[in-house]
Amino acid sequence: MQIKLPKSFPLLFGLAITLSFLSSCQEDELVGEILVYENDFSHASSLTNIENGKVHVFENDTILGNYNNEEISLNIEDMPYHNTVRVVIELLLHDSWDGNVGGVGGPDYWYMNVDQQQILYTTFSNSPCVSTYCLYQSYPDNYGRNYDPKTSAVETNLPGLCQYRNTPGWTSKYRISKLIDHSNPNINITCGDILNQSNAPSAICDESWSISKIEVSALYVK
Length: 222
Known about the structure:
Low-confidence stretches: 1-25
Strand content: 35-45%
Distance between the termini: 20 Å
Structural class: mainly beta
Mean pLDDT: 88
Radius of gyration: 18 Å
Shape: globular
Helix content: under 10%
Largest sheet: 7 strands, antiparallel
């Protein structure tokens, strides 16, 4: 059982402990997990510890963003003893992401680093995909793979934010969850993009991204 404070407390240090065991067929054993940070950006203190933080309302929900060719960084200090962290990002990709395609429209990259270590460097596509035309993306893998647009998205039919505002299918939502070897008491999580829209009158209206939730947990695995 996990015990945690309400979401009005975005920083949760040592307030959620889980004791469980992994399947006997696996070598690693999860001894404990502590939720140290949870933020859905719905409160006045939402931007505490976030560099370049800003919020906007999308689908009646206050979220972090929106961004185009920008970075945000989250800094958490005094984490409990651990040797692994779990980082969960609920990512929203708005309007005309073009995936792996080159030229004036892409590739459209998004990345996440932990303590300057690259965890994810990939592309996303919101493009319609038909037999004669498809702009593939690399997610859920790092850049260099080809998957159909919106592969692994948890929601695919949200409206766009600007260029395709009120048109369903032009915002995709992903739940990105990563387990990372980590033992330092402090952690820095950086998310950013490299977007190419040289043919668009407004870069941020053409394509952008937001984050609806961030969770960070400290794990001890043996």
